[in-house]
Amino acid sequence: MEINCETIKHLADLSNFSVSDTQSKSLEKDLGEILKYISQLDEIDVDDVEPTYQVFEMENVWRADEILEQDATREELLALSKEQKDNQVKVPKVL
Amino acid sequence: MKYTPTIGIECHVQLCTKTKLFSEVDNDARGKEPNSCVSPVDYALPGMLPRLNGEAVRLCILAGRAMNCEINAISRFDRKHYFYPDSPKGYQITQFYQPIIGAGFVELPSGTRVRINHAHLEGDAGKLTHFDTYSLVDFNRVDTPLIEIVSEPDIHSAHDAHDYAKELWRLMCHAGITYGDLYNGNMRFDVNVSIAPEGSDELGTRAEVKNLNSFRSVERAVEYEIKRQSKLLDAGEKVVQETRGWNDATGETTGQRSKEEAKDYRYMPEPDLPPLHLSNEFIETESKKLPMMPRDYREKFGGIIKEDILEILLDYPSLMIKLNEIDEKYITLVSNLFASVLLAEEKSAEYLNDLPTSKQLSDLAEMNDKKELSSTATKEVFLKMFDPQMKGKDAKAIAKELGVIQENDLGALEAIVDTVLKKPETQKAQEDFRNGEEKVIGFLVGQVMKESHGKANPSAVQEILRKKLS
Predict the structure, then answer these.
(1) Element holding B121 (H helix, E strand)
(2) Selected residue of B130, B132, B135 to mutate for chain A interface (largest A Cβ count, 10 A)
(3) What is the pTM of this model?
(4) Which residues in chain B are contacts of A16 at CB distance < 8 A?
(5) Chain B contacts in chain A segment 46-75 (CB below 8 A)
């Protein structure tokens, strides 16, 4: 997969980042090199190997449906956001 | 030109678990302050890990069985990435590759079958409220468990779309997996509508109308789309594949500004949640907990309750459970009483929130059966059973309090008849009756009823009168 300025723009749009032209150039180079490094894995033949979803062989891990007191309060959690209003998190207008 | 519409429906159902899908906080945020049902997991704070709610897995099995679906032994969770303030994680945990509920079908009251492609378990997003220059986010709904039910495109009319939505709602309510409160968005429908020239093998381009929260809006949105798309095709234009919004006030759908590029959710397996591997035994044990479904009630009560009445009562699962507890010989009477309350008395569904016990109902039906209550009195007592003042009292106590118990004691009735027959104003009628004027018996029965203050059993009175006057 080739990383060009369109790919960078697409990824930035998906994450709502603004990326300047200079940043885009250096990201193109960096991401391209990372992908090239990772793509060495393509040389391994995995046709007969089950995909690995989990590295631990766990399954059916679930909990009881019981309400537990939380150690963080609403106020403490809200305070983590940049802005609040009426006990809600205030964000720039989105549609 | 004539067109055949093809409709597929996706439905999100909120599960009525006590806690959320991935955190141990209250899942029922109705009437609660914004951001009061949240945990560090819902906020996706660094290091927080989701913990799956086992009850949601059990409810999935019930939901699946309600729709005649296979339950998949192995299912997994995946991340669906998108950036929006309603999701602190930056992704939704869903089941993209291996959902828990497999293929099945829903049968509509008309007999039409709509196949289910699959249904998957996922977490809901938070709620955004938009203002002039900013938006506010409430995370109470983050990771409320949802089942998304995906139908095959087996629906071909607005009417069937309505019936499918309603039947799904009934199935989920009877299965007891959701509160089914449509007003509060417990079930939301997305409809995919396309049209193709009649007889054509190919499907047309589809438009998706999102976020419908009533059966009526599902029906109207489909009607509108069929009309809109027909007009476009008739004019030689093309239908654009897009997401459209529904305006309930105008009854129209409008195209929503969509980004030019196709959505790219970059699905990947959720590394924080181990897969589910359900044994046959577990699936069977849980499946057995499925309560009676509309199809079971139709089979059981089909011959006893009139079809149109049964279809009305099926909207009320708790009422059906009650009916099922009552002796079969009283079912017709009790179901008619409920239907009359819902129809003639125009009582709302809330009226039925707190139902009389099956014992109260059986006693009432028995009193009616023994002619201790006239049909009018039976209904009067029935209505009083919902009265906060009388609630909990047994049928007999209420009937006594209302003074409507019929006199069936033959000795007592005979005494009243004798009194009436002695009255001067009844002499002529008695003579007329003896001379063969049959219809004056009604007048005489009326007089006895009056004398008994309406408590005499009219058919018993008539019998006594006929004996005495013969």
Answers:
(1) strand B113-123
(2) B135
(3) 0.86
(4) 83
(5) 53-54, 56, 58-68, 70, 72, 74
For chain B, give the mean pLDDT.
91
Arch. (CATH architecture) of A5-43: Orthogonal Bundle (1.10)
Question: Which of A60, A88, A94 is the closest to B35 by Cβ?
Answer: A88
Across the range B430-448, mean pLDDT stands at 87
Give all strands (DSSP E) within B325-464, no chain letters. none
- For residues B195 and B4, the answer to whether their CB atoms sit within 8 Å is yes
Domain spans, chain A: 5-43
pLDDT tens by residue, B254-268: 988 655 455 789 999
Q: Given the DSSP bridges, would you call strands B242-247 and B207-212 parallel, antiparallel or unpaired?
A: parallel
CA distance A28 to A9: 10
Domains and CATH numbers, chain B: 3-282 (no CATH), 292-402 (no CATH), 410-469 (1.10.10.410)
Smallest Cα distance from B55 to chain A, Å = 6
The residue of B26, B27, B32, B35 whose CB has the most chain A CBs within 10 angstroms, and thus the best one to mutate to test that interface, is B35
| C-alpha torsion angle, residues B202, B208, B213, B218 (rounded to 10) | -40
Q: What is the rounded CA–CA span in Å between residue B354 and residue B287?
A: 28
CA–CA dist B51, B40 (Å, integer): 12
Cβ contacts (< 8 Å) between A61 and chain B: which residues?
Answer: 51-52, 273-274
Task: Report CB contact under 8 Å: A14, B264.
Answer: yes
Are the Cβ atoms of A16 and B83 closer than 8 angstroms?
yes
Q: What is the ipTM of this complex?
A: 0.89
Mean predicted confidence (pLDDT) in B273-277:
95
Cα separation values, B205 from B3, B197, B208, B357, Å: 13, 12, 10, 53
Distance from CA of B195 to the nearest CA of A (A): 30
Q: How far apart are CA B35 and CA A74, in angstroms?
A: 6
Q: In percent, how much of chain B has pLDDT > 90?
A: 64
Distance separating alpha carbons of residues B37 and B29, to the nearest angstrom: 7
- Which residues of B fall within a CB distance of 8 Å from A85? 134, 136
Do the Cβ atoms of B261 and A13 come within 8 Å? yes
What does the block give as tokens for B4?
Answer: 């055949």
